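[job 4471] stage=fold_predict status=RUNNING
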Amino acid sequence: MIQGYPRLYYDPARELYQTRLELAQIRQIMQQHLMVANEMQVMVRRNHEILTMIYQRNYGAYPPDYPAFNK
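[job 4471] inference complete, writing structure tokens
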């Protein structure tokens, strides 16, 4: 028996299984990133609304060069 050598045969079923596991992990990570990005977008939008409201109360107009988000 030869020891210390890599496998000399290729197992396509095992390779496919590993690929599917890796894709499932990547899909889960991408879903988590999407959830975080959506949460950040909501926070930015709320911050924009609060800043606009404060500016309107103080100056009675929208801030200059501060475009509103498309809602």
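[job 4471] summary: The CA atoms of residues 53 and 59 lie 10 Å apart.
[job 4471] exit 0
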